[in-house]
Design goal:
Largest sheet: 5 strands, antiparallel
CATH architecture of the largest domain: Alpha-Beta Complex
CATH class of the largest domain: Alpha Beta
Number of helices: 11
CATH topology of the largest domain: paralog of FGE (formylglycine-generating enzyme)
Distance between the termini: 7 Å
Strand content: 5-15%
Shape: globular
Order of helices and strands: EEEHHHHHHHHEEEEEEHHEHEE
Length: about 375
């Protein structure tokens, strides 16, 4: 989920972004790290991904949630009656303020009749009350699409679930070339980057295009932060606390959003490339890596086993782990620790009109999907 903060946090870290199509004009230290062959591979990857994206954009577009509408249209009389009975019972519970069993009832009914606009609204209302703004946004969007002239649709449009809070529950569209992703570093002690293909991320009736970029495979570490300090950057917070966990390859913590800006500015100057934090949408696209499940590996809760496919630093211990400790849990784009370990700052303002607060993604050490 998204969260916002405007000060130094206990376990707030960062993951960096690089325009994948950028010409790699690197400093002398970095020049030996990027070979002409790698540069050509990066440019070919970006071109191929954009070709796929452009071809898709030129084709016919399906209505959002078309499959759900088609499922509802195929219902038998008995199935429709079963769903209506569940909705009626859930609505009575909702009116009484008994939201937990009401949520269960609406979900059971929507599993049968997913295109019921009113039921989607009331489920969205419950999620909104729970501050699950992403889930609420997805339900309100369905209401507007499935029942556009209903009272519930009018009420749904009035709810302030902005794009900053929204979390996509749809399967992202990924324009991945046949060629493999390219991993590289701009310098020996720079973050390891990997190319991310173009794609689309849908938030109900709103679709956001994602251009190709490169993302840090790991959260920025204490060692990488120290390189920034030795290079004359990161002066506002040269020695952030490690909470006694240790430094080295553990993710740098106790850094606020302004501190992260000093790091990416220094990295941009040192390498000659434009680095920044990922946007919230870019982070979600990269973290999901083509999935729509609770976690990038599926729906199973994380476990504290470094060799497990669903391994993550979630309720394992109070301390952080070195980045990439859960090697088998990397996602399909080759990114590590998108679940667990530490929160990650992203570029976004807290709201479209208020940049005094900023947004974080990922999660610390809680095993629930709303925290991860």
């Amino acid at each position: 989920m998204n969260t916002m903060h405007n000060g130094k946090g206990r376990f707030h870290a960062l993951r960096v972004w690089l325009l994948a199509a950028a010409t790699l004009l690197v400093c002398p230290e970095a020049r030996a790290q990027i070979t002409p062959e790698q540069q050509a591979e990066i440019e070919a990857y970006v071109t191929a991904s954009n070709v796929l994206a452009n071809a898709y954009a030129a084709g016919p577009r399906r209505e959002p949630y078309a499959e759900e509408r088609e499922r509802s249209q195929r219902l038998s009389v008995d199935q429709r009656a079963q769903a209506q009975a569940l909705f009626a019972s859930a609505f009575t519970l909702w009116q009484a303020g008994d939201y937990e069993p009401a949520e269960t009832g609406f979900r059971r009914g929507l599993a049968i009749d997913p295109a019921n606009g009113a039921a989607n609204f009331y489920l969205g209302d419950i999620l909104y009350r729970q501050m699950d703004f992403g889930g609420a946004h997805a339900r309100f969007s369905r209401t507007v699409i499935f029942a556009p002239n209903s009272p519930e649709a009018l009420r749904a449009e009035e709810r302030p679930t902005t794009s900053v809070f929204a979390v996509s529950t749809e399967t992202p569209i990924v324009f991945a070339p046949a060629s493999p992703q390219v991993a590289f570093r701009d310098c020996a002690q720079c973050p390891e980057m990997i190319t991310i293909p173009a794609g689309e991320l849908s938030y109900g009736d709103h679709t956001l295009a994602i251009a190709p970029f490169a993302a840090g495979r790991f959260e920025v570490t204490f060692d990488e932060w120290a390189v920034c300090v030795r290079g004359g950057g990161c002066t506002s917070n040269p020695s952030p606390s490690d909470e006694g966990a240790g430094r080295g390859s553990r993710p740098v913590i106790h850094v606020n959003w302004n501190d992260t800006q000093e790091y990416v500015r220094w990295l941009s100057v040192a390498t000659g490339n434009t680095y920044r934090l990922l946007s919230s949408a870019e982070w979600e696209f990269a973290a999901r890596a083509g999935t729509s499940t609770r976690f990038s590996w599926g729906d199973n809760d994380p476990v504290c086993v470094t060799t497990a496919r669903n391994g993550a630093q979630a309720d394992c211990s109070f301390q952080t782990r070195p980045v990439g400790s859960f090697r088998e849990a990397r996602n399909a784009f080759g990114l590590f620790d998108v679940h667990g370990n530490v929160w990650e700052w992203v570029e976004d303002c807290g709201t479209p009109v208020d940049c005094s607060v900023r947004v974080m993604r990922a999660g610390a050490r809680s095993p629930t999907d709303r925290d991860l």
